């Protein structure tokens, strides 16, 4: 029997947005998908060793995940992420990711570094699928079309689950059938203790920073344990957020930066949150602008705002203290409103 080709997917960066699309497509073409381990100290240290000093922590971690896959797979999937919505691009570090990996100090398996670009001519997604299929030697257009249809369908389901409030890892489990989908209208992640929530907080940041519990020092879970209701940009319908692309005098050039900023503006308009926490990576150029924009908009709306910068030295204790202080302040503010 012919051995299945093994394709490694690093558990970092756009994994948190596109994993169902990629993994289902590869599996339907007959490949075995191997995902790197959860981020841990060793993965981070390997990534730091292999990456330039001034890279942000998500990029360093990505490199560590690539190293984790060496010896386990035939190919590593590192698409060149250019545009996901046909308008904005990904940040320059995303654009250069395959080169960064290829020319790091360690020799890596063959990279599948096809372009993911929805800009320009229609059919960008299908060009992407065709290139991925041919990279692993699948030429049959029917097999490719079937795999693409399955992948798109799972990706849509994944996005619906995120809208319901599931975290990516929970949504992956639902899609893979190892977890049940929460009932309609029920939010997945309830604050503990359950009711009433001590505060409702917008936790804004790039998915690969927020949802990787190692690099975010578990911020999301910490807030839930404090009895906070957490909202992230994935829980806001895209068409609602997109309205704010017309409100800003100039949108950002970068895909994730726009989503974070639009989500912040949407939530400020809705006035149904108590505060905003912006999680930003040290050394992130785009975030220098996103953070300032959110801070100024929150200030103008009288909304409490805190920004937390993460890097390789971020510790659990420091994050816990800052979150507790912020949540206590929100609770006190909310209480005063009720009494007064
Ligand atoms: S957007 Fe910022 S955090 Fe994300 S990869 Fe680029 S530099 Fe790093």
Poorly predicted runs are none
Q: State the strand order across the main sheet.
A: 2-1-3-5
The proportion of strand residues reads: 5-15%
> How many extended strands?
10
Name the CATH architecture of the largest domain.
3-Layer(aba) Sandwich
Top-tier CATH class of the largest domain: Alpha Beta
CATH fold group of the largest domain: Rossmann fold
The major sheet is characterized as:
4 strands, parallel
The total domain count is: 2
- Name the ligand types: iron/sulfur cluster
Q: What does the average pLDDT come to? A: 91
Distance between the termini: 75 Å
Name the overall outline: globular
* Percent range of helical residues: 40-55%
Q: How would you portray this structure in words?
A:
By secondary structure, the chain is α/β, with parallel strands linked by helices. The protein folds into two domains: 6-162, Rossmann fold (3-Layer(aba) Sandwich), CATH 3.40.50; 189-339, Rossmann fold (3-Layer(aba) Sandwich). 48% of the residues lie in helices and 13% in strands. The protein contains 14 helices and ten strands. Strands 2-1-3-5 form a four-stranded parallel β-sheet, sandwiched between helices. Strand 1 (6-9), helix 1 (15-28) and strand 2 form a beta-alpha-beta unit. Helix 1 (15-28) packs antiparallel against helix 7 (141-163) and helix 2 (41-50) packs across helix 3. The N and C termini lie far apart (75 Å). It binds iron/sulfur cluster (SF4). Residues 56, 58-59, 91, 93-94, 206, 281, 284-287 line the site of iron/sulfur cluster.
């Amino acid at each position: 029997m012919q051995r299945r080709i093994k394709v490694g997917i690093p558990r970092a960066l756009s994994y948190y947005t596109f994993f169902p699309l990629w993994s289902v497509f590869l599996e339907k073409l007959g490949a075995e998908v191997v995902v790197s381990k959860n981020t841990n100290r060793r993965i981070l240290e390997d990534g730091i060793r292999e990456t330039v000093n001034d890279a942000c922590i998500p990029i360093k971690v990505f490199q560590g995940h690539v190293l984790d896959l060496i010896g386990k797979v035939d190919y590593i999937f590192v698409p060149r992420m250019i545009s996901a919505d046909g308008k904005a691009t990904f940040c320059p570090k995303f654009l250069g990711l395959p080169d960064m990996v290829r020319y790091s100090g360690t020799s890596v398996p063959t990279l599948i570094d096809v372009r993911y670009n929805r800009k320009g001519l229609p059919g960008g997604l299908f060009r992407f699928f065709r290139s991925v299929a041919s990279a692993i030697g699948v030429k049959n257009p029917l097999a490719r079309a079937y795999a693409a249809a399955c992948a798109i369908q799972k990706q849509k389901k994944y996005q619906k689950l995120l809208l319901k409030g599931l975290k990516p890892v929970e949504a992956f489990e639902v899609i893979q059938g190892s977890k049940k989908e929460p009932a309609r209208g029920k939010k997945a992640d309830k604050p503990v203790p359950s009711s009433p929530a001590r505060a409702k907080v917008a936790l804004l940041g790039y998915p690969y920073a927020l949802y990787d519990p190692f690099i975010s020092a578990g911020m999301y879970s910490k807030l839930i344990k404090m009895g906070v209701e957490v909202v992230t940009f994935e829980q806001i319908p895209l068409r609602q957020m997109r309205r704010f692309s017309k409100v800003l005098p100039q949108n950002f050039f970068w895909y994730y930066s726009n989503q974070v900023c639009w989500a912040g503006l949407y939530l400020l308009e809705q006035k149904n949150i108590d505060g905003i926490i912006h999680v930003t990576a040290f050394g992130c150029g785009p975030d220098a602008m996103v953070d300032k924009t959110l801070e100024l908009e929150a200030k103008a709306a009288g909304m409490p705002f805190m920004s937390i910068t993460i890097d390789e030295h971020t510790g659990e204790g420091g994050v816990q203290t800052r979150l507790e202080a912020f949540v206590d302040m929100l609770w006190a503010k909310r209480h005063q409103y009720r009494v007064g």
